[in-house]
Design goal:
single chain, about 325 residues, alpha/beta, Rossmann fold, 3-stranded antiparallel β-sheet, 14 strands, about 20% strand, globular
């Protein structure tokens, strides 16, 4: 079993690529829920949805979020009535949020709701929320502490970030499916997808059970850099790194994660950083990491899986 830690667009694309090269029993994807929130009375799980939509082949590749072939009648009507239209919900996407909220209201855990939705979308691999209980990302900024979606969507990441807090993480209860992965010998390798290290991966690692599992691991951890040529492929990762005093580069990411990661996959445009990463004690593979199509995601996934297996054998 290979376990992927994922969130956002890059996480969804990497998870989709891995699902094309690994059988359903060979891959589980643990997804960030720190950006979940309540909006217009609905429970929204943006990262879970991005991963599910991308793995199902129904994501809007142009926008990078939501479903392809959307219409926007609901959002237009909400705006006309003076409702909160800053977080855009397409009509097809809205159906998922309504169903999730309904099933959660009936007492089903988030993991079971996610499994049911994934099955209806045709996703055969396990997609698991990092926690059944709420964990909410809070952003410390020069303008005070902001809820994540207020910072990320409403304010477009403009406030300068000073740090992050994950409310509820200490008491977080992980799903049964995640607990099974934590059993010694169950996981052969972990892949950290090219997701934002602060707002997608850090919330997952803030959950004590997952943090402790990674700390005492007997398996290799391979990370795919979300920074290419000094910029994030998608999103504000490079901006956040600069604001927190870290170098926005593949080498800077390697220093950020430190000994948590055993092997790094970096883009050809960052080949000059490979030697610095290796000096820090990491194995490095240099390849094309930009997944601007399903075929490229699959090719990258094959490289990542082969790299992880080589580290398992050498370990």
């Amino acid at each position: 079993m290979i376990v992927a830690l994922a969130g956002g667009v890059g996480g969804g694309r990497m998870a989709a690529g891995l699902s094309r090269v690994l059988p359903p029993r060979g891959l589980a994807v643990i997804v960030n829920t720190g950006d979940d929130f309540e909006h217009l009375g609905l429970h929204l799980s943006p990262d879970l949805d991005s991963v599910l939509y991308t793995m199902a082949g129904v994501a809007d590749a142009r926008r990078g979020w939501g479903r392809a072939g959307e219409s926007w009648n609901f959002m237009s009507a909400i705006g006309e009535l003076g409702g909160a239209a800053w977080f855009r919900l397409g009509d097809r996407d809205l159906a998922l949020h309504v169903l999730r909220t309904h099933l959660l209201g009936r007492g089903l855990p988030l993991s079971e709701v996610t499994r049911r939705i994934g099955a209806r979308l045709g996703v055969r691999h396990a997609v698991l929320p990092m926690a059944e209980t709420p964990v909410r990302t809070r952003v410390r900024t020069a303008r005070g502490v902001l809820d994540f979606q207020d910072y990320f969507v409403r304010r477009q990441c403009r406030p300068r970030a000073r740090g992050f807090h994950f409310a509820g993480s200490r008491a977080a209860r992980v799903p049964r499916g995640v607990r099974r992965l934590l059993v010694p010998g169950r996981t052969r390798a972990v892949v950290i997808c090219p997701s934002n290290p602060y707002v997608s991966i850090a919330p997952i690692l803030s959950v004590p059970a997952l943090r402790d599992w990674m700390a005492r691991r007997a398996f290799p951890v391979v990370a795919v850099s979300p920074i290419v040529g000094g910029a994030a492929v998608k999103g504000p990762a490079a901006k956040i790194m600069r604001e927190l005093g870290e170098e926005p580069s593949a080498a800077g990411l390697a220093r950020h994660y430190g000994p948590l990661v055993d092997g790094w996959v970096v883009d050809r445009r960052d080949a000059a950083h490979a030697r610095a990463i290796a000096r820090e004690g990491h194995a490095v593979v240099v390849t094309d990491t930009v997944m601007d199509g399903a075929r490229k995601a699959e090719v990258l996934a094959r490289t990542v899986v082969a790299f992880a297996r080589s580290l398992t054998r050498s370990g």
